[in-house]
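Exercise 3.2. Students should predict the tertiary structure of the chain below and write it as structure tokens, then compare their answer with the key that follows.

Predict this chain's 3D structure.
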Amino acid sequence: MATTSPAQDSQDPLRTARKITAWYIAGAALFMVLGMLAMIEPAVAALAVSRFVGWLLVFGGVVYLIGACTGRTIREAVLQLAVGIIYLVGGRYSLTHPHLAIGTLTLLLGALIMAGGVAEIASYLYPRSHDASGWALFNGIVAILLGGMIWFHYPSSSPWVIGVLVGIVLLMTGATRLMYALTLRKLIRLAAR
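Answer key:
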């Protein structure tokens, strides 16, 4: 298999575009597989999300503590130190009490999913892109409906809702990205003529 250099790729933009869409399709397939796995085992997916958020908070706290050491003023250093401690405490809490963290994350996830749906609808309304724009609208509507379901069924839904909703959103995001990639491939074929 021959490899090409960046200079060769810049001479053939259609070839580069085909490579990019191949990676985009692979990423869309990965989103869809992860979404299906999350829906099959929602409790495991919820626990994984809780752990992931806990570690992100811990690492974020460490970054803020490092930033406090490099603060230019005392006020800036104290603020970064305070935020770092809050992140570390929140991360430790999430890691040591994952089931309680899942309840908190359920409400946050509902808000984030609805915000993502609003962003998808806004992207549909602003620069329409050929055939794929309808999928962005559909994805946005589904995301808003799923985010709203969290608020109506909280707290009884906490044990399973994160896994199922994250799975559905991942599946829909993968399908939407797949439609974008296939539309781009169609445009590349038209441009090659």
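Discussion points: The longest helix spans residues 158-192. The CA atoms of residues 110 and 149 lie 8 Å apart.
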